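Predict the 3D structure for this chain.
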Amino acid sequence: MFLMIDSPIMRTATVADLRNNFATISAWIENGESVEIRKRGRVFAELNPPKPKKPFNGKEYWKNRMEVLNKIWGDRVFSSKEFEEIRDYNDRSKTLFS
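Done. Predicted structure below.
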């Protein structure tokens, strides 16, 4: 039985179709279409193309990071001793939970 349904909303295929016609179904996915997989007439899974990865933006990362730190600490300036204590605490935490 070859049930592959071509609907404007989402393509549908059975588990058997997936096994026997993988090249066709994978081509649909590669072309950006979602495919609903049915097993015994019920939806078993949905295969979707991967979402495009957003490129890493270092400036945006550090801007957001600084906003979070400013919310936590405000304009506080740490002494070198306080900074060393925080760094040592973080180093100990990493070794305890690794």
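The helical segments are 15-20, 22-30, 58-73, 80-96.
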